[in-house]
Amino acid sequence: MADEIPDLLGASPVPVADGATWLPGWLAPAQQRWLADQFRAWAAGPVPASSPLIHGNRMSTRMVCLGWHWTATGYRREASDVNGQRVLAVPEWAQRLGRAAVAAARGAPAPDYQPDVILANYYSAEARMGMHQDKDEQADAPVVSLSIGDTCTFRFGNTRTRARPYADIPLASGDAFVFEGPARLAYHGVTRIHPGTAPPGCGLDSGRISMTFRMTGLPG
Ligand SMILES: O=C(O)CCC(=O)C(=O)O
Ligand SMILES: [Fe+2]
Q1: How far apart are the C-alpha atoms of 34 and 205, rounded to whole Å?
Q2: How many whole angstroms separate alpha carbon 217 and alpha carbon 131?
Q3: Which of 188, 192, 211, 213 best tests ligand 1's pocket when mutated (most atoms within 8 Å of CB)?
Q4: In a 3-state reduction of DSSP, which class is residue 129?
């Protein structure tokens, strides 16, 4: 009987490219609220959320990092560009959550996926993230992204250029997106936030939180 029970929580996985999978509605509202609360707790410190500098420009999101602190010049344990404090560890529940997202995308367990960094970003209505590759990691393990709050337009492209071909995906509160393998180094970005689209009860009244889980491949 068990295999006849429909998945009431989310729609089916949507393949976006070879190695890239969109999981609409993967997180239940209570999970979204809880994650939004976690984000607020992380953003309070020891390293507060801040807007990193890239090539002299401030990013428009506010970022908080767990496990390793990301800067445009690499990962480090201490947030030397913020207050010099060591970042929080990636909690065990978050590792399990990341693993569950990879398993859902693959339709198979992912026991080897042990994310050691989470980059969480808050986007106000005006915030964006330009097209980029996630290439500061030395492991080719999947990237998992979770969305809470307002829907965004997430542009997921190809591995060669920032330009077309790309797909514009409306990532909504509760969606997960996993990219790995041939899609791991695809250019991607957030072209806009859609104000007023956060569903009631998601834990965020306005703006968008994304959490990306990764394996850095860095020692210890
Ligand atoms: O906000 C998102 O969904 C994407 C974030 C992202 O690309 C990143 O943190 O590298
Ligand atoms: Fe990224």
Answers
A1: 14
A2: 23
A3: 188
A4: strand
pTM reported for the whole predicted model: 0.95
- Which residue bears the tokens 């834990």? 203
Alpha-carbon span 49 to 42, nearest angstrom: 8
- Written as tens digits, the pLDDT of the chain (220 aa) is 344 544 445 578 999 999 999 999 999 999 999 999 999 999 999 999 999 999 899 999 999 999 999 999 999 999 999 999 999 999 999 999 999 999 999 999 999 999 999 999 999 999 999 999 999 999 999 999 999 999 999 999 999 999 999 999 999 999 999 999 999 999 999 999 999 999 999 999 999 999 999 999 999 7
Neighbours of 117 (CB within 10 A): 21
Q: Any binding-site annotation on 134?
A: yes
CA 1 to centroid of ligand 1, rounded, Å? 39
| 12 alpha carbon – ligand 1 mean position (Å) | 22
